[in-house]
Amino acid sequence: MQAVILAGGLGTRLWPLTKTVPKPMVPIAGTPYLEHQLRLLQQQSITDIVLLTGYLSEQIEEHFGDGSRFGISIAYSKETTPLGTGGALRQAAPLLQESFLVIYGDSYLPIQYAEVLDTLANTSATGAVTVYDNQSEDTGVTNNIALDDGDFITKYKKDAPDDPLLQYVEAGVLAFKRSVLQRIPEGQVSLEQQIFPLLISERGLVGHITQERFYDIGTPERLERIAEQLA
């Protein structure tokens, strides 16, 4: 199994903390956040890692190197100009397998990652999105995903708190077949804003439902919450 981690964001909501440190290297419980993610993957025997880096990428490469110190193998794909989540994935095409996980570099979800790839493999979909059943609304994130009876995603929309169809939250772990790369145009591209709607229109994006609460480091408040979890 291969995991691709989106680790190139600017982390503007954590400023000034991220003025001199890339968001994935923000310390959590005395350890760079990205290290927590990589150790979780290694524990599940996912050792083929591709890091998509950008802002202050040299700090990430200096700390993790080729990954051997952590029992994994790391390849890097570095943005020289911002490409967005989709553009960064397209640039990394020569490094990618026929199917692969994609994990946001600011989220932490302790699930069995192989199950997400299994969900993808057992459908005709091009992509799978792990979705959290947010009935208790304990994540602080507005519901943004609707599913049909077959768990295919029918709608993805951020910042629509009054939409009753949106009952799930994207949880930061995706899986794609390599064919998705053919759908990503050159330049700066957002997976969520440009590629998700395209796949949804083709019934090509399936949901992998989890009851496991996810955490992220998107804001100082959420940073404190995940620090309690990983301490």
TrEMBL record:
Domain of life: Bacteria
Keyword Coiled coil: no
Keyword terms of this UniProt record: Transferase
Pfam families reported for this sequence: NTP_transferase (PF00483)
One Gene Ontology MF term: transferase activity
Domain Nucleotidyl transferase per the UniProt entry, residue ranges: 3-230
Segments forming a coiled coil: none
Designated name of the protein: Nucleotidyl transferase family protein
Native source species: Rhodopirellula maiorica SM1
